[in-house]
# Entry
Amino acid sequence: MIFLKWLLLTAGVFLVHTQLSSFAGLFNLSVVLVYYFGVESLSRISSKKFFPVRIELESAGFGASIGLVEDALSGGIIGPAILSRGLIGFVTPFVYTEIVFRWTPIWAGALLVLFTFCDGWIIAGARSVFSETVINNAQVLRVVAFQCLVSLPFALLIKPLSARSA
# Structure
């Protein structure tokens, strides 16, 4: 049942990406999906474990698979989205363990904006370094800033299971 949930969410995100493709990449909902997977995986962490490596690797694998599909569909080089989404998937569960900080809507918004910002620059940087794509930094900054604004409301809606009852 959980697999079906994530399969439908992933298909829905890619469907929305294809329908909004006329906006030239201004929406980056796959980062929100990877972030959501990392936050949802926190419910499987035992309270006795300080460093839940298995959960982080599952989230990184999910993020990397989303990145692989995006790279394959983009027609560009394979790798930038894999790296970016994998890193986001790896970092999200670790950050929300209470070792780093507790979940609050402010931290969630700041983190998802930071993840979206880093995602855009990792992909743009990797494409400019490893392919012959010429990248205009001002244009990348405008697109990434808009993506950050779009992802901010999702961060305020996505809560870990431990914060939902409070």
